[in-house]
Amino acid sequence: SPRAIIAPSILASDFGNLSHECSRIVNEAGADWLHVDIMDGHFVPNITIGAPVVTCIRGSVDRAEDWSKGVFDCHMMVAEPQKWLDDFKKAGCDLYCFHYEAAEASQAPHTPSSELIKLIHSKGMKAGVGIKPDTPADVLFPLLDGMLLVMTVEPGFGGQKFQERCMPKVKELRERYPDMDIEVDGGLGLGTIDVAAEAGANVIVAGTAVFGAKDPKDVIAKLREAVES
Ligand code: DX5
Ligand code: ZN
C-alpha cells in the first residue's frame, strides 16, 4: 500500500478556536492532512462550514512544498458538488472529495462523476470520490483517477461507531488498485485502526480520536504506526 496519511477531521475541534485548533494539529501534532467536513443540510442532515471559513483557516496551517503536509482534504457532503469548485479552489482546498451518490442523483441538477473529476482537475485540485456504507465499491471502478473514500459511518455526524461491514469494500479496492490512496472515514481510532489498516486503507480520517485526545501527537503517531506495520 502507499504511505500512511493521517487526516484529522476538524469536525471534532473547538469551532470557536478553529485557526488555533488546525495549526496545533498539523503544525505541532504532526498530522499530514486536515480533513474538512463540508455539509449543506441537503446531502446530509447537518450543516457545518463553507468556503469563507475554509479561507480563514487556510492561513494557519503550514503547507509543505511537496504533496504531503498541510493538505486541505475537503470532504464535500453536499447535494450539488459541481457548484462549489471555484469557491473551494480559491479558499485553498487541495483535494476536492465529492460523493458518488450526490453526483449521480438524478433528481437535482448534477454533473456525473467522471465529468466532475475532469472539472476538479481543470481547476488545479486533486479529486476524490466517496461512497456511503450502503453503496457498493464497484461504482468506483471506472473512476480511476484520484482518491477513493470509503465511509465507515453514515455521513452527517462525528463520533459515531465504526462499521466493520465496510471493510470488504476496502479490501476489494486495495486488491484492484495497489497504489491508490484509499481513505476511511468514521469512527476510526486506536481501537479500530488495525482492521482498517489490515483491509488496506492508507488515508485515515479521525475526528474524535485525535481532537478529543490528551496527547494528539501520540495518537497520530500510533495511527501511522498501525498503517505502516
Ligand atoms: C462524518 C464525517 C467524518 C467525521 C469523523 O460525516 O465525514 O469525517 O467527522 O469523525 P469521527 O472520527 O469522530 O467519527
Ligand atoms: Zn469526513
Structure description:
Strands 1-8-7-6-5-4-3-2 form an eight-stranded parallel sheet. The model has no long low-confidence stretch (mean pLDDT 96). The longest helix is centred in the last third of the chain and has 13 residues, at 216-228. The chain is of the alpha/beta class and 229 residues long. It is globular, with a radius of gyration of 16 Å. It has nine helices and eight strands. The structure holds D-xylitol-5-phosphate and zinc ion (ZN). The site of D-xylitol-5-phosphate has 22 residues, from β2, β8 and α8. It catalyses: D-ribulose 5-phosphate = D-xylulose 5-phosphate. A divalent metal cation binds at residues 35, 37, 75, 185. Keywords: Carbohydrate metabolism, Cobalt, Isomerase, Manganese, Metal-binding, Zinc. Pathway: Carbohydrate degradation; pentose phosphate pathway; D-xylulose 5-phosphate from D-ribulose 5-phosphate (non-oxidative stage): step 1/1. Its cofactor is Mn(2+); Fe(2+); Co(2+); Zn(2+).
Topology (SSEs and partners):
Blueprint: E1 5-8, H1 18-28, E2 33-39, H2 51-58, E3 71-77, H3 85-91, E4 95-99, H4 100-103, H5 113-122, E5 126-131, E6 147-151, H6 167-176, E7 182-185, H7 193-199, E8 203-206, H8 208-211, H9 216-228
Parallel strand pairs: 1-8, 2-3, 3-4, 4-5, 5-6, 6-7, 7-8
Helix pairs in contact: 2-3, 6-7, 7-9
This protein binds D-xylitol-5-phosphate (DX5) and zinc ion (ZN).
The site of D-xylitol-5-phosphate has 22 residues, from β2, β8 and α8.
Cofactor: Mn(2+); Fe(2+); Co(2+); Zn(2+)
Active site: 37 (proton acceptor), 185 (proton donor)
Enzyme class: isomerase
